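Q: Hi! First time doing this. I have a protein sequence and I read that you can turn it into a structure. Is that right? Here it is:
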Amino acid sequence: ARSESQGPQARRGGAVGSLAEKRVPWAEGLAEGALSPIIEERGGLAVYRLDGRLPATHRPVSQPSVRREIAATLLREADALPGAKALAAQVRARLSRNPEDPELAALVASRAVRRHVTQPFDKDGPEAIPGVGLAPEAFQAAFAAAAGAVAGPFQVRQHYVVFRVLVAKAADPAAWVAARADYSARWREAKRGTVVDRWLSQVLEGQPMWVDGEALRALTRAQLLAEPGSVSPPPR
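A: Yes, that's right. Below is the predicted 3D structure, encoded as structure tokens:
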């Protein structure tokens, strides 16, 4: 349908788009090419021209996109999205003034607001924020902001996200090389016993294992406390 409105699109001659039948009750019985009655909408008055009808499509509820659309519809019907955006704006204003504001804590506690401190994440990974998920706009804003800055709200799926940058570290190639070398050394040290055990298992695999009880009982206390390898085993 093409809309002719008094809003910003009026100068461009309206917009062309598809509308679900349940959203346009005025289209019932309307002939193709005919104009709708004048309809009062949020952006002003609008008139639609019915260009045609498309066949109905059926998509399974198991599709993630269908579930998101259903959730968005339910939130719109409950007027939850505008309220959530207004709440996010309040949270940002109070967070910008004082992160330790008791009124901010009370606001978060009294409403369905989730407060979360993320794990550190870097710019080279996917555009996802730990605990939030895939959020390209918020991800880019996080790396464009300085420590202590507040940004948002950003719409992430059916939620609004406001964040404050706690720590921002610039990339330091020299420090990365040193950290990698330190990690490699600690990893080798931690795995050393496992590597030796695995090597001994491979060497001794299939060989008979034996202990000479008489020779063991004949060893003196000094021999038992001696350094490994200083006492020769008895001949077999």
